Amino acid sequence: MNDPTRRDPEAFLRAAAQEGRGRLKVFLGAAPGVGKTFEMLSEGRERLRAGMDVVIGVVESHGRRETEALIEGHEVVPRRQIDHQGHSLGEMDIDAILARRPKLVLVDELAHTNAPGSRHPKRYSDVQELLDAGIDVYSTVNIQHVESLNDIVASFTRVRVRETVPDSILESAEIEVVDIPPDELIERLKDGKVYIPAEASRALTHFFSKSNLTALRELALRRAAQAVDAQMLEHVRAHALAGSFAAGERVAVAISELPSAAGLVRAAKRLADALKAPWTAVHIETQRSAGLSADDRQRLSDTMALASRLGGATASIAASSVVEGLRRFATDAHATQIVIGKSARSWWFELRHGSVVDRLVRDIGQVAVHVLPGDEGEGHHTVAAAPPAGRWGKPTDYILATLMVVAMTALGRILLEAIDLGNIALLYLVPVMFAAATFGLRAGVYAGIASSLAYNFFFLPPTGTLTVSNPENVISILVLLGVAIVTSQFAARVRAQANLAQSSARQNAALAGFSRHLTASATQEALMQAICAEVARLFDVRTVLLLPSRDGPHLAAAFPPEDRLEQIEKAAAQWAMDNDQPAGRGSTTLTASDWLFHPLRTQRGVLGVLGLAREDAGEPLRADQVPLLMSLLDQAAIAFDRMALEEEMHDVRQVRERDRLRSALLSSVSHDLRTPLTTIISATHELRRLYPGDLIDTIDAEAQRLNRFVANLLDMARVEAGALPMKREATDLFDAVGGAVHDTRQSLKHHAVTVEIPPDIPLVRVDATLLHHILLNLLDNAGRYADPATVVTIRGQRLPDGIALSVIDRGPGIPEGIEARIFERFMRLEGSDRARDGTGLGLAIVKGFAEAMGLDVTAANNPDPPGACFTLYFPQAQIVTAPSPEDMS
What we know:
There is one protein chain. By secondary structure, the chain is of the alpha/beta class. It has 29 helices and 25 strands. α24 (626-690) packs antiparallel against α25. The longest helix is centred in the C-terminal third of the chain and has 65 residues, at 626-690.
């Protein structure tokens, strides 16, 4: 059942799931400025020299010259520009990287929060998408951004970091610690190599104190060691490698129902803290566990709860003996230290049954065993206490064993003339084996003694007495008694193992049945009701499922139906939601409640709480039932996540279908309108030549306006379909603006146009046709919405990091707060003077064409003179620089 040479199926499946995914390497630092980005770029350059396809997804140099020098030579994927509250924010372009499909991507600042409107709220989610696509990623993160360490860092730095990375990201990553001594980092800070001087002086008195940096450095090294240790264990389990592999210490403490177990747990906690090691409190369930009293079970439950409160894990293992269970757990968990209490049994008991401690030390192998004495008062009380009820079995067990012996005696008397006297002794093995297998070891031993006495009294001469005349018959009696006792022990052991196997089978069947019922649920309401009904059936309790709401915990499902809970129950449920810990009866919080509430954890956090209570107001769960409940709650969480994903995928499919139909409709309508419109425009030109007049001019103007509307529909369909042909070439902005002004002369006939572009402005590398469409729509927008007889200004400016080309009109401007939304499709400023003949597509096309070329476009209000200002930004990467004299020579 527990073959150490057998691979762990779960670990093997997790390893198989990594096949085809990219590898993540994280450069972990104790604080900003230790050189994480520098190290990542240096290693990326080494991979580039080795022939690997490496690109930079996003790197923050923070103005450091050494970092910027390493960026040169790498291919940099342009960032995607996102408008947010009138500002342009550059984020990593996932689609461009996926289309480029490099072997390795360098992504700085893993904990970064993306701008609103991005595909994922966090950059680590962007990285996960790249890994799923089979692309390797190098990234950087500081130790204060690790989610599980956030509270610890805040406790001594007095600074709480809001951007965190889940521990699961680091658990699957290769970690390289980038470390420098605190004194050297402080010198770098003073030299202005980390922050600007004003920020540096403030940081030195707060976050960057030497004590803080030393503590952060220790946390980084320890977290990296834990990650390496976890990955080593995963590899060992997946490949069934033998050995303890004690690269890191792991502590296990054996607990029982004895009062001294609480002291063992505290001692194990102190040992684990001293070793900086994880620890587990493990209880071994044997056949003896079935006879524990209610008080014993309560003490065991309290001890398990104490271990959880102190930060340890808990486990319950079914085994034929304590030593076998501990040995198996130590092998599976690769424990290096075991804490166990000194036995309080008498020497006579150990002489008969053996010492657990001695057997453990002899059989455990390369594991250190710490034997601790229990409290004297507690130990004495335990030994003097009466045996648990039912330990010796029921009186009927012994009566039935006696009747079996009587039956075998009667049968022997009948067969005495037919068979040999020695063979009659074998008949008495039947009641011995029956009693041992059915009622336990003590009843079997009783049957063995009774059989020996009956054989002696009724069959060995002189019969009718317990006297034995022939010494050979004494040997027969002793052999019969010995065989009976040994047979009883073997039969009782087999019975105990069968009971354990049956218990394990029942638990596995319960889990399988629970999973089957959850899978059959079609809606979230049915799922919650199925959870309550199955848990109530398995544990014979009442159940409720509560979800969070603005007014506190909301009763979502119950079995049997429950319509209300008392205030104390609601308070316990709320505490369990807020603290992700059990609360209520049987826990350590709000024990006055009749209900015990366990949090239902999903990947999205605590979804709700499951409450359990008994009709007799007793303890909802026994200690041995807690592991099964935890497994059921884990399955329920998986079912909730599955249903949430199915609902999201259904919504995504509906949105995609709507977008596809809308694009197809727009494309179809616009294509069908182009032919008659072309005919109408040609006819109006011919009519103007033959019959000039205002009516013909009106028909021509409206036909041209309808033609532009149809063209916008076509362009919008092309933008959404991603079918924009791109031909980048060096383009003169002055010529591009002149051509656009000429083609929009009809829209601008009531406005003067001023072009303010410096003659030395450099060329830009863009698609000239798409740029022409952008300028046409911006100028047409200005001509329609500006006040009559005002000037429309086209201004070009050379910026340190690019070129800005603005179209400025004089009019009412843009209502405050919608500067970013004005580029949405069919967005019109209803109820304002600016809503003049607008279709709501022109500016959406401007944004779509600009993003397709890697440009950024923003809308804002011009203060003086008042009006609207639309600015097109050309990044430095798209500016054509003139060759230097050295290059020309």
